Amino acid sequence: MSYKNIILILNYKICIKLFENIQSMNEQINKNGLEYLKNEIEKFKKGGKVEKMKKGSGIYIKPENKGKFTKSAKAAGEGVQEHAHNVMKDPDSTPLQRKMANFAIQAKKWHH
């Protein structure tokens, strides 16, 4: 069997699987779609967040680690961003410090 034939067969199998998934999703929307949308609109009107927002970004910070970087910034007599940039410049900083500093720098760019 040639390389092209193998690619065609794989693409065909992928397309069939995608089609099956789309059909399944379509059935769920047809069953519960209108009721689901009504519930989401009501939640939104009451000031609640809609389902997509509830799921969040997937970023999870363990409760015991929350505020650790801010605490280290205050101990150094710096603001969080200033401390983050200083940690990134410091060749003696640990990988964990650099990870937290990078997170602080990147999180500042988010529109939250």
How is this structure best summarized?
With 112 residues, the protein is mostly helical. It is built from five helices and no strands. The longest helix is centred in the first third of the chain and has 43 residues, at 3-45.
What is the terminal-to-terminal distance?
Answer: 53 Å
Low-confidence stretches: 50-54
Number of strands: 0
Order of helices and strands: HHHHH
Largest sheet, in brief, is: none
Number of helices: 5
Give the overall pLDDT as a whole number: 78
Sequence-ordered SSE layout with sheet pairings:
Layout: H1 3-45, H2 51-55, H3 68-75, H4 80-89, H5 95-107
Helix pairs in contact: 3-4, 4-5
Using brief descriptors, characterize the structure shown.
5 helices; mainly alpha; 112 residues; 71% helix
Structure, described:
By secondary structure, the chain is mostly helical. The protein has two domains: 53 residues; 45 residues, no CATH class. The chain contains five helices and no strands. Helix 3 packs across helix 4 and helix 4 packs across helix 5. The N and C termini lie far apart (53 Å). About 4% of the residues have low confidence.
